[in-house]
Amino acid sequence: MNQQLATDRAPDKTKALAHTIREAIAAGEYAAGEMLPSERELMEHHDLSRTTVRRAIQLLVDEGHVYRRAGSGTFVSDAPEVMGRPAVRASGTPTMSLIIPTFSNPLYAEMIDGIEREAREHGLKLMTNQSGYSLQSESDQLTELAADPHVRGVIVVPSSVEASSLGARKYMATGKPLVYMGRWPTDLPADGASADYLAAGRIAVEHLLAQGHRRIAYVEGAPNLPGFSLLDGYSQALRNAHIATHKELVRITDLASEEAGRQAIEALLAEGVEFTAVFARNDVTALGVAQALRAASIAIPKQVAVASVNDSLLARSMEPPLTSVHIYPETLGRMCFRLLHDRMTGAYDGPALHVSITPSLIARTSTTQ
């Protein structure tokens, strides 16, 4: 490939490199089945970043000009473009994938709705799977998606933030973009969008304090995510009000959300711990809290107020309706899609972006009489 890429004049370096390689294939500089130069060789020859080179190669893979062979390199397809004849493209609609922990949480349904609308508008098929809060399942799925030529990008709600999965690292090594939604591990330079959970926790507890509550329990189930727990906002609001955080009021377990809420209240009552309000990690946890309070004939909010975060359909459907901090899940889904789409199209090629949404309180009768 003798043509030197004029990167200083190219408005889109990804497309410019893809065009250069495409022309070299059409001119016969690379025969069907022949291996292209390595990523490093392309980087050095054209003075480009590894990310740009990988995206250009992925564009050619999507078009059907080339294909990757794991552990070997990138090779020219059997039917490349010759004398203006278009290459045989991979069959099927370009696809993006979404991996969420579970379909049972109504919050994710609203996130999916935002992503699906954006994907449809941009001509992409959305494939949604669940990981079951299993890091291994998430990793296995990402490994499969890395090898799927139809998959152009992935959005993941990770099961852990302590470290990225092996599959996530394999996936990103292909040059295809990955965006984390709701939370992210710190060891992988991937984009992410989330609600401001520190603000969410603080807003909820400040509301309960304004209602006159001083003994506020905090309940959280699995997964426990350092840096994305609402405990920090809970503690900050109490400190700002010069109220001590009492250890016996904080109940964090490895149980599933609804069961965590139910068992936390049962334990607090059995131990004789005094509390007049409960702040739950999410609406599903709050559902378990409400079930346990009703079973103990404790009225909400007359005897114990209950507040949460997410403001999903569940919060609006509970009896009494649940006060919950709205984190705008559909907007969050759209933000994640746009981050992904900018990476897929080469509109953005900079360092990893982490963006957050400022939440707002939706007060209902679970805290106000």
From TrEMBL:
It comes from the Bacteria. Residues 11-79 form the HTH gntR-type domain. It comes from Paradevosia shaoguanensis. Pfam families: GntR, Peripla_BP_3. Keywords: DNA-binding, Transcription, Transcription regulation. InterPro entries: LacI/GalR-like_sensor, Peripla_BP_I, Tscrpt_reg_HTH_GntR, WH-like_DNA-bd_sf, WH_DNA-bd_sf. One of its GO terms (molecular function) is transcription cis-regulatory region binding. PANTHER family: HTH-TYPE TRANSCRIPTIONAL REGULATOR GALS, LACI-RELATED TRANSCRIPTIONAL REPRESSOR. This is GntR family transcriptional regulator.
